[in-house]
């Protein structure tokens, strides 16, 4: 009711093309191409999990495209522990190319360590939402990631990896407030703000 939203299927998912070649950087490029093809000059990006990685890769590479960035439980570039393994059998109703699963699991298990250097290049004000102790992601690494982004705010909403499903009202309130808070251009970035916890 307050924003015009575009919710794309990533390549290999849903109604988008299933080209057989998959990576998070290719998905980053797909989103950039989508934004430009629609005719938009600058957008706010909200990404969960894999979508959050696509979001921070895009914000670092093409900062002119991203006004504000929301990263909900976006995996930092640390190897998954334990490594993730694709299921042995493809679900009959899978709405995605099974080849994408193996490619993205491999990238999650063996992320590019140089991505750590990208965070300081993100110029967009950034909201990093973590899910607390019940999340499968390393919360200390998420906090470290947020600390490297020049204008980032870290908020923990104890809902595990699926904060937007488990704590919808709190999630929406945080995201709406963040997107509505346009800074005074005369003021310098406030710098990282951390460890604010939203009680359920």
List keywords for this structure.
five-stranded parallel sheet; single chain; 6 helices; alpha/beta; 200 residues
Notes on the structure:
With about 200 residues, the chain is of the alpha/beta class. It is about 35% helix and about 15% strand. It has six helices and five strands. Mean pLDDT is about 90; it is low at about 190-200.
Summarize it.
The chain has 6 helices and 5 strands.
Determine the strand fraction and express it as a percent band. 5-15%
Helical content (DSSP H or I, runs of 4+): 25-40%
End-to-end gap = 25 Å
Ranges where pLDDT stays below 50 over 5 or more residues in a row are 192-200
- The chain-level mean pLDDT equals 91
- Computed CA radius of gyration, to the nearest angstrom: 17 Å
Return the structural class.
alpha/beta
**Spatial shape:** globular
Q: Biggest sheet: strands, sense, closure?
A: 5 strands, parallel
Taken in chain order, the helices and strands follow as HEHEHEHEHHE
What spatial order of strands do you see in the largest sheet? 1-2-3-4-5
Number of helices: 6
SSE blueprint and pairings:
Blueprint: H1 24-38, E1 43-48, H2 50-61, E2 66-72, H3 98-109, E3 126-130, H4 139-148, E4 152-156, H5 163-166, H6 168-180, E5 193-197
Parallel strand pairs: 1-2, 2-3, 3-4, 4-5
């Amino acid at each position: 009711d307050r924003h015009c939203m575009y919710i794309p299927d990533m390549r290999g998912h849903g109604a988008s093309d299933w080209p057989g070649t998959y990576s998070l950087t290719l998905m980053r490029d797909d989103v950039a191409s989508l934004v430009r093809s629609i005719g938009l000059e600058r957008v706010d990006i909200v990404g969960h999990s894999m979508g959050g990685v696509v979001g921070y890769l895009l914000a670092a590479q093409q900062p002119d495209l991203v006004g504000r960035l929301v990263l909900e439980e976006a995996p930092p570039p640390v190897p998954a522990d334990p490594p993730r393994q694709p299921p042995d059998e493809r679900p009959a109703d899978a709405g995605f190319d099974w080849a994408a699963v193996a490619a993205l699991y491999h990238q999650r298990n063996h992320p590019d360590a140089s991505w750590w250097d990208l965070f300081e290049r993100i110029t967009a004000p950034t909201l990093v939402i973590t899910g607390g102790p019940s999340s499968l992601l390393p919360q200390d690494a998420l906090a470290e990631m947020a600390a490297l982004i020049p204008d980032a705010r870290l908020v923990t909403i104890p809902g595990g990896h699926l904060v937007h499903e488990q704590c919808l009202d709190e999630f929406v309130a945080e995201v709406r407030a963040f997107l509505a808070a346009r800074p005074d251009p005369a003021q310098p970035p406030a710098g990282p703000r951390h460890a604010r916890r939203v009680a359920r």
